[in-house]
Amino acid sequence: MSIVRATAIATVALIAALAGSVVHADETRYPFYGLLRSRDLTTFGFLRLDMRPAYAVSIEPGSWAIETELGYQNTWSLSPEVEKYLTALEPTGRRRIGPDEIAAIQALPGENYLLDLESANFDLTFHYKFDQHWTGYAIISAVSYNGGFLDGTIESFHKALGFSTFGRPALTKNDVRLIYDLKGAQLTSLGSPTDGGLTDPTFGIRYTGFDMPEKWAFSLEGAVKVPVGGERTLLSTGKTDVGLQASLQRFFNRNALYLNVAGVYYAGAEFPVRQGSRVIPTLVFGWEYAFTQNTSFNLQGYVSRSVYTDEQTDLDELTGEKYQYTIGFRHRWNQVLLSFGITENVQNINNTPDVGLQLGLAWIPQRKPRP
Q: Rounded to the nearest 5°, which phi and psi values hold at 207?
């Protein structure tokens, strides 16, 4: 399914589902905040520039807003042959991967890989409203890699719903394992090559001065990711990425619909496999429902292309598009906005995290009323 087709289907479905509810909406004006400000946490391509969904809230000219986002993800990603190999080992109990297991994986037919890790990503964003239509922002980010704590919970969840084990019970829980045996890379790391650190900062600007019908909003946004510290393993590609995003928003009384279309020039990377430059399109779409004046519910989808092509691997799950859904809520206390979301991968389950958690806290003073 192509990105355009997936987005069209999801958007039509959202509009159809909400058509009845907006007709009978009350006359109270409820505040909206836009889509959850989550980004792609996928290990494959995490270090590239990824445009965050646009806010629906606006601040007064000359004002600052500050937001923080903590994203946590669990990745268990492996090729079909590795899954078969580990599933066959399950009856003999858990084990740490050693020389025998590595040799067995490398001897499997075709290309193979295994990624088992968890990571925590922290974003600190400063927004400044220059005038009525122009807003600038800067994002400072950091990441930590570890074995984590979610493996047991995810295994229990899969078992309770009758899903496949995907070979998880053959290995010890909460460890870090990176094994690549691809045509473009051969790498084995039992443990993270780095504990973490600062990643590349992002700088952007947003323009909202378009003449739109009442209860509609449209904005254009540009951003650049700057490799201030040069190339660093699992922290920076060492290259500059730039991106553009268009955001369309439609407000009703209790409901709002959102569509973000972005294109990022990804300058490539060297680790774990050499990747050339390419343009990566991304679509984020969703729905927000205002329960009260202070609390709202979000449901959104994310579709993006992989950073890998057939130059690096012939495995479809690595070159295929990434699909993720996020469900969450926001709650406001005066000028403080709390956000929480849970992200689950869909369709191509071996190129995105199994589970992602996002927690956000923003300080938004001097808000302007919505259209």
A: -120, 130
